[in-house]
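User: Hi! I'm working on a homework problem where we have to compare a predicted structure to a textbook description. Could you give me the structure for the chain below?
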Amino acid sequence: MKYTKLNIPDIILIQPQVFGDHRGFFMETFRDDEFNLKVTGKTNVARVTFVQDNHSKSSQGILRGLHYQIKQPQGKLVRVISGEVFDVAVDIRKSSPFFGKWSGAILSAENKNMLWVPPGFAHGFYVLSNEAEFTYKCTDYYAPEYERSILWNDPSIAIDWPIIPGTSPILSPKDKDGSTLENAEVFA
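Assistant: Happy to help. Predicted structure tokens:
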């Protein structure tokens, strides 16, 4: 796999090696030893451990996010297995030089790319295809009492979402009522 740091170096785009022929394809989507070496730079010292896998399906125009857990923060290894999304991570670590900045990437069943979003980031995605199935591995368990949402269109973050012309994103009530970054609970 190829690991590429994005404009925020903690966000890593992962491009798997795909072996294909007329019968289909094969690829590794996760290797603990390689992932931990590439992400932490160390093995058996600063390890990332995944404890939960999630799978969601959404229709075109749905925007989910920007979500995070203020306690039990989750690192997420995300990928799309059907369709295409624009995936975004926002640094909400107050001590980070990238606080309030975002990184984004197109993830699709076709490109098979994955994105590593470490704890300390808000995460969201927008569905570009007719529908998309999204899977992700998490480093901590879902804890709804600690879940928070930052407004997807907060002008202080200024995410360049590729919204389909002539439409508005479809949001959950939780995401419509998200906080601005200025008023959100963030990490130290």
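For your comparison, note the following. The longest strand covers residues 52-59. The radius of gyration is 16 Å. Good luck with the assignment!
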